[in-house]
Amino acid sequence: MRTQRQVVDYSLRKRAVLRELLAGRVGTYDVCDASPYLKNAARFHGEPTDERCPICRSENLIHVHYIYGDELKQSAGQARTLAELPVLAMTLREFQVFVVEVCLGCDWNHLVEQYLLGRDGLAGGADGGPEPGAADGDGSTSGSVRRRREAQR
Q1: CB atoms within 10 A of CB 13
Q2: Lower CB density within 10 Å: C or N end of the chain?
Q3: Sequence-separated (6 or more) residues with CB below 8 Å from residue 153
């Protein structure tokens, strides 16, 4: 996606968890604990992948995208399909996406990555809003700068 930024990849953490499991320091029940809500989100909003489950190796993993942000209000924390994310990215200034992989066979689940989406990531302030620190129409500074100054008092 064009506005995707501040990507955090959790593949090293996943490898560490799998290494602990293979060494016997962690049990299968500790890592295969997907909640019923997560499994339903995977069924109805998830994106199937070609990657096999690292635990049961019988089913392909499903990626679930959860969104969080101030502008989302009641929609924060909902699972969305991958097709919905670009539309939201063009309508909202900024929101965070968490990608969780889920196996419906053995209940394996793990956070894969997180990143930011939204109009704030477009180059050159293409969202039509004022640049940070720019004056508003009434001659005052933008809201975020004004709040920052008030917090310093």
Answers
A1: 12
A2: C
A3: none
